[in-house]
Amino acid sequence: MLTAGILLVSLTWKNELTLDEYREFYASPDYDCQYEKVIGGYKVQLKYRPTELHIASRVENKEERDSLIKENSSVAFFDMKITALSGVSPIFEGDQSVLEERVMYFLAHVTDDLMLHNDDGEYYLLNHHMERNYNINNSIYIQLAFNRPEHKDFTFTYNDRVLGIGKVNFEIKAKDIDKLPKINTL
Question: 33-184 in CATH: which number?
Answer without folding.
Answer: 2.60.40
